[in-house]
Write a structure and sequence with these properties.
With 169 residues, the protein is mainly α. It contains four helices and three strands; from the N terminus they run αααββαβ. The structure holds zinc ion. The site of zinc ion has 8 residues, from loops.
């Protein structure tokens, strides 16, 4: 456009057809420039939209990173608490196990290994808390007649039954 305009302003072109053609080219270039400016505006709007999306996603990513850190800290603390509780329970278990006759302890460990880690269960109102079977009245009668130090077992799951005041005996 600058070159064409300089050429036009120089007055060196005398031919009217050449002048007309030059003017037409200038008009065409002006339209082209206007079109390109529209495209530029559109692209700038898209850039702004993308920048806003980047800002939002960055904010979300930072929030998630914070949350992950908080959760990791929580997991770490809970794991430490569980480990401490396990050590305490292990110590208590060792003290209790030391008072139990070895043959009964052996029986308990065998049943425990065969029954998902539960070798003994309370008898609660005539029901074995290990397998949830309500014992028949004849069985309750037999358990009632058993000596207090006898090892009694559930006839269904064979777990050792622990008598409590709520056993229903
Ligand atoms: Zn049972």
């Amino acid at each position: 456009m600058t070159r064409d305009r300089e050429l036009l302003d120089s007055g060196s072109i005398g031919d009217p057809k050449q002048l007309q053609s030059l003017q037409a080219e200038l008009e065409s270039l002006a339209r082209r420039q206007s079109d390109l400016e529209d495209v530029e505006l559109e692209i700038m709007e898209r850039v702004e939209g993308a920048a806003a999306a980047v800002a939002q996603l960055t904010e979300e990513r930072d929030a998630l990173a914070n949350e992950r850190e908080t959760l990791a800290t929580s997991v770490h603390e809970q794991r430490a608490a569980i480990d401490a509780e396990r050590r305490m329970v292990d110590e208590q278990r060792a003290v209790i196990a030391g008072d139990i006759p070895s043959d009964l302890m052996g029986l308990y460990d065998k049943i425990r290994a065969d029954h998902g880690g539960v070798g003994a269960a309370p008898l609660h109102r005539g029901t074995c808390e290990g397998c949830r079977l309500t014992l028949p009245p004849t069985e309750i009668e037999a358990l009632r007649a058993a000596p207090p130090d006898a090892v009694i077992r559930c006839e269904e799951c064979r777990r050792i039954l622990v008598r409590t005041p709520e056993s229903g005996l």
